[in-house]
Amino acid sequence: MAHDSSDPIGHHGNSEMVASATSESRMARYVLIGLALCFVGLFVLMPLAAVFTEAMRNGAGEFLTVLGDPETFAAIRLTLLVAVIAVPLNLVFGVAAAWAIAKFEFKGKAFLTTLIDLPFSVSPVISGLVFILLFGSHSLLGPWLQSHGIQILFAVPGIVLATVFVTFPFVARELIPLMQEQGTSDEEAALSLGASGWQTFWYVTLPNIKWGLLYGVLLCNARAMGEFGAVSVVSGHIRGLTNTMPLQVEILYNEYNFVAAFAVATLLALLALVTLVLKSLLEMKFSEQIAASRRH
Amino acid sequence: MTASTRKRWQFRQPSVIPGFGLALGVTLSWLILIILIPLSGLLWRSSALGWETFWAMATDQRTLNALRISFGTAFAAALVNVVFGVILAWVLVRYRFPGKRIIDAMVDLPFALPTAVAGIALTTLYAPNGWIGSLLTPLGIKIAFTPIGIVIALVFVGLPFVVRTVQPIMEEIDKEVEEAAATLGANRFQTISRVLLPGLTPAVLTGFALAFARGVGEYGSVIFIAGNLPYVSEIAPLLIVIRLEEFNYPAATAIAAVMLVISFAMLLVINMIQAWSRRRYGYGT
Amino acid sequence: MRSKRLTRLITVALLASSSQVGGLGFAFADTTILNVSYDPTRELYKDFNAAFAEKWKTDTGETVTIQTSHGGSGKQARSVIDGLAADVVTLALEADIDAIARDTGKIPADWKGRLDNNSAPYTSTIVFLVRKGNPKGVKDWGDLVKDDIQVITPNPKTSGGARWNFLAAWAWARQANGGDDAKAQEYVARLFKNVPVLDTGARGATTTFVQRGLGDVLLAWENEAYLSLEELGPDRFEIVTPSVSIKAEPPVALVDGNVDTKGTRQVAEAYLQYLYSDVGQKIAAKHYYRPFKTEVADPKDIARFADVKLSTIDEFGGWKEAQPKFFGDGGLFDQIYKPGQ
Fold first, then answer.
1. Does residue A247 surpass a pLDDT of 60?
2. According to its UniProt record, where is this protein located (chain B) (predicted)?
3. Mutate to test the interface with B, among C197, C232, C329 (most CBs of B within 10 A)
4. Which ipTM did the prediction report?
5. What does the alpha-carbon distance between residue B159 and residue A43 come to, in Å, rounded to a whole number?
6. Helix or strand or coil: residue B141?
7. Would you say residue B92 lies in a domain?
8. The domain A58-291: what is its CATH number?
9. Which one, A20, A204, B217, C54, has least CB within 10 Å?
10. Which residue has the higher pLDDT, C323 or B4?
11. How much is the average pLDDT of C4-27?
12. Rounded CA gap, A290 and A286, in Å?
């Protein structure tokens, strides 16, 4: 536990009150740490443990067999494909948005930031619904798309669009506060030394923001692979074709195939854990660069 | 755009940094394509309903109940998260204890774990025959398939929002302020309640609002654990899905539009809190 | 207009990406057809698709791949309406296929007469699944409104199976009360007071009952009840057949609009016809669906179906009348079901 030298071990009394004015009594600390641990244990660790236990219920052998199933394999491939398309798109957007918002002062900036944040608080179901309203048979575009044989909904493009929508703010939100805090002096110095705009970006800005950028991409990727609500609305659930991993979890679960459902869920949980481990490693290794601007 | 006359209205303040046009151009095109066109499609569809139809659908008893459940449970969950999130952030910033780094990393799990997986896992735990549910059932406490189940799911989903907005602000707090308060005779409780907490208020409010906004729209984790009884444990996003399945597009659109407007208003409030806190305390979140 | 152009641009960009998917190596066969079905038919069509693909190969030398999509019947119909390119639909309710016909025109309005038996190649009925030993002594519909009974059924507004549940209960109550519809309504209202959870689909309801241990009785498709018995252990549950139930006819239809665009009419028609063949009927019986050609099925399979008095949807005026009356917005279900108020 804590080894704060300013902390006298505890009886109650006036002397302690003064001494402990910048720190709580040992008792209070234990209670607070206990509360925090219980809370994390109950709400975060237990669900995670449940996923792994259920998946391993019938042993590791069955766990592996399940993952070899062609439909599950197709779901994994689709999920990767969607992430490979969606994440780079939002990466480019996120850098551009952060550059515009953090490095310049212009009218309507707060409004623009709010719009970028919007997908964060829009229900995933609505994120799917808007694309149904845009491309479905009842929409303005629907008949035109149909007559040209273009399939957007219930196919990869629709799933990609819904995923891009949902993960839209992740990179930008990560970068904007970081770049705001770093200011523009480094860039100004580079420019005054004769560097071009692109050179400044590549050799000055990018090294400054690379860890924040990487973390933003990690989160964006985790969310892209794990999105359920929005994708569920536009997927069509064609087996082996338009089911992503989270949808496959639901399908297997609905087939009484609980071990398989939890096995796929385990993959997704592992993805989440790897994301967190990478993030922690980044923070540990580059704590100086990040500490200054830490938001997450 | 030159800075010759100070008083002239300017779209942006002058700067030597290049690339404004390109960056803003990319940002706006992508924003319009991915966010604004789809969302305005939704608003356009609901405006096509006509005001009276729209109002009738938005104030239908079942819709109102679903909205009330969504907002009520999200509010309760955000409150729980504020209390425990602040404690958790405090513990992580101020104390040292074994496993602290792991706990710190785990706080982000709900960000990264797919909501459907979370929903199934929570149901497994809290169902009457689950690990935790089986302990509570003899006591007459039911969690899964009741509104409490929804709150549990939303607490899970919203936890990182509070911790991650409050934590960096706590780290910035200067110990000297506390020492000064102590020197002036304040006891620990007074120092915390009068000196530290007021400074944290904007961050706590932001975290609360973010967790709340996220909770209102949450779908994947809730449907597994909610029981989905109309008027009792049916959340608004589920009602949208149900209306779609009934081929009732106008009603789905109307509920979605109501939720969208509320989300947008909440985000504006969050941004105002942040602007206000930047002015008042010199730092934002 | 700008918006339209932009959308077109992104369409082109995404098309490029979608065509890559094929290149990435999904096994596209010579012909591919898509069967959009409802929840409890997964196991049935898994078997049937394999049998049909083999037969098609023998008959024509062509390889056909049958893709399937499962979900709540209403949700599946909605996807087809919004453009899911189904070649055939095999849903729980006539009303759902009617909705596709009405909203898209891709299926002619008289689709029901195009195949035998009102386009229902197999039928089923509604039974009770109870916990082993039947601890609450549930024998018939009358027992379900007792105070200490909890009944699990999905939501009739979203689940096809739940609508059959609802009508089966109504049919029993009407017969028990000498044809009095008001009494029947009162009974069904009391029945739904005993429902603690309303899942959106049949599978969700089964999971709630079986896996979560909630409720005393599950109202289920006969095939679904037998399947869960088989999958989840006959030592945990048993089936109770009520005195009166309903003849549930899950219909199938060709989606003309889609097969003509894709050029798959021939194989899709053959696919549906094959459901009526001896092989198709035998597979249906194996998966606990009642075939109409009982003589071709395995006698052991047929023996499993209990003899029960079945009322039909015609007694409710057919689906065209029953759907809006009972399940439409503000219909009888909306009137009787108001918990928490």
1. yes
2. Cell membrane
3. C197
4. 0.82
5. 9
6. coil
7. yes
8. 1.10.3720.10
9. C54
10. C323
11. 43
12. 6
